[in-house]
């Protein structure tokens, strides 16, 4: 019995020991970080890039670490500014140089090749990645890419000159901007087109000079008479401007439009048509009666919008050139309304002009000017009215010795082209009197007439003024 007890104790001990060894196998000791995590390596023959990303709440931590490593790697590549480069002339502008360096770094990250993965390290919280790039291999690839890029730009420039020969200046300018854009990563270096035999364009300076010359050759011809705009209209006719380059019309060329949005608003962009006519369409005009200015400027971003040229590269080009701007003056004037009434009482002229005076007082506002010449009017209001004995007048005469007159009027609103915009007929205004003439006069002075006129004028004025 004692022997069995000893065997049982040994079994428990061995079971516990086995369980402890089994649990020990599940314990993973965190490996120590490599030296490059805590101390950055130094190499004279390689560029080094080390990136780290947090794992917490970041499912893309591996991609982020790689991106950071490549940014780190390219930051070691110093851009030496050549004395024959585009950037040399503006390198004293610190803000400009910073913009250029950030752009070059971005382009380098996008296009860098030949880097090698050296190591990866991770723990529960962070993920590290280490890349190296051979400096000689980088220079070789860079020179090859530069040569290919210049060759591509040269071909585009040749095509642009062919467009200029055919007076297709819009297409030619578009291609020159494309050529400049693809050369942006090398603006700190000398760029030469001498081996490509391009007439009058041997380097990047000649290219930007040609772009500048084309832009400065653009001119406009405003309308012969100053455009007049009326406030708060539903729709405006376009202000038409003739565009030229040299002595030729400038077709299919985009412009940006600038305006004082407290006074007038137009569409922000416009493109000249095949006749070189640029339509500037007002959208909103305040009742600020004065002469104001609309400005237009060639829009290079819109010109190359469909050509895979980034706005950043276009803005960079603008740093080297001057953009022309043109002014167009417009006059904001009140809305002219002509009122014509024909007021009758029992088929006789009502000399009091009751309805005309009401219309005049209601329509004349800060935005509307009532004119006496219909040829000067933007809108014409015509009203015809007459009174007649109502069919119920006989009953009133028998019972109360009173006459009942009915007032009818028709009102029409026309635009300057004599198109009817609004019409209304009113026949429910009445007047009482001891005789029929007096009953008709009282109908013209009945309070219901004012009420009905206010209703009509509400809808009529909404056709004239669109707030």
Write a brief caption for the model.
With 467 residues, this protein is an alpha+beta fold.
Q: What do these coordinates show?
A:
- The protein is α+β, with helices and mostly antiparallel strands and 467 residues long.
- It has 4 domains: 37-136, Endonuclease I-creI (Roll); 138-216, no CATH class; 218-301 and 323-332, Immunoglobulin-like, CATH 2.60.40.10; 335-464, Double Stranded RNA Binding Domain (2-Layer Sandwich), CATH 3.30.160.
- Helices cover 38% and strands 28% of the residues.
- The chain is built from 13 helices and 20 strands.
- Strands 15, 16, 17, 18, 19 and 20 form a 6-stranded mixed sheet that branches.
- Strand 6 and strand 7 (248-249) form a beta hairpin.
- Helix 6 (169-183) runs antiparallel to helix 7 (204-216).
- The longest helix has 31 residues, at 135-165.
- Residues 1-28 have low confidence and may be disordered.
């Amino acid at each position: 019995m004692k022997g069995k007890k000893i065997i049982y104790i040994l079994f428990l001990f061995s079971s516990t020991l086995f369980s402890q060894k089994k649990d020990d196998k599940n314990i993973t000791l965190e490996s120590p970080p490599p030296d490059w995590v805590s101390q950055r390596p130094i190499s004279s023959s390689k560029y080094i890039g080390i990136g780290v990303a947090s794992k917490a709440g970041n499912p893309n931590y591996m991609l982020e670490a790689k991106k950071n490593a490549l940014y780190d790697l390219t930051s070691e590549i110093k851009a030496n500014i050549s004395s024959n480069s585009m950037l040399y002339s503006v390198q004293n502008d610190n803000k400009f140089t910073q913009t250029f360096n950030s752009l070059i770094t971005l382009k380098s990250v996008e296009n860098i090749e030949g880097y090698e993965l050296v190591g990866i390290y991770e723990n529960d919280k962070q993920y590290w990645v280490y890349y190296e790039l051979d400096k000689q291999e980088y220079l070789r690839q860079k020179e090859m890419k530069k040569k290919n890029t210049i060759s591509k730009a040269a071909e585009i420039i040749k095509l642009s000159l062919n467009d200029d020969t055919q007076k297709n200046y819009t297409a030619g300018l578009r291609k020159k901007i494309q050529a400049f854009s693809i050369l942006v990563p090398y603006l700190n270096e000398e760029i030469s087109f001498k081996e490509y035999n391009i007439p009058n364009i041997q380097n990047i300076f000649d290219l930007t000079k040609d772009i500048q010359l084309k832009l400065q050759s653009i001119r406009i011809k405003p309308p012969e008479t100053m455009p007049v705009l009326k406030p708060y209209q539903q729709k405006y006719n376009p202000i038409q401007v003739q565009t030229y380059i040299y002595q030729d019309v400038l077709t299919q060329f985009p412009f940006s439009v600038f305006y004082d949005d407290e006074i007038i608003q137009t569409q922000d962009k416009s493109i000249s048509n095949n006749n070189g006519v640029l339509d500037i369409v007002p959208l909103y005009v305040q009742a600020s009666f004065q002469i104001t200015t609309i400005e237009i400027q060639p829009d290079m971003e819109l010109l190359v919008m469909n050509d895979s040229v980034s706005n950043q590269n276009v803005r960079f080009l603008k740093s080297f050139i001057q953009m022309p701007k043109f002014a167009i003056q417009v006059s904001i004037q009140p809305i002219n309304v002509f009122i014509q009434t024909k007021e009758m009482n029992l088929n006789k002229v009502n000399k009091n002009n009751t309805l005309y005076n009401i219309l005049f007082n209601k329509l004349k506002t800060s935005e509307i000017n009532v004119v006496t010449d219909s040829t000067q009017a933007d809108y014409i209001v015509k009203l015809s009215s007459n009174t007649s004995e109502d069919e119920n007048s006989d009953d009133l005469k028998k019972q109360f010795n009173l006459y009942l007159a009915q007032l009818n009027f028709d009102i029409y609103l026309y635009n300057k082209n004599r198109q009817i915009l609004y019409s209304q007929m009113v026949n429910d205004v009445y007047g009482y009197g001891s005789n029929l003439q007096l009953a008709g006069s009282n109908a013209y002075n009945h309070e219901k007439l004012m009420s009905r006129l206010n209703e009509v004028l509400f809808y009529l004025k909404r056709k004239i003024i669109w707030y």
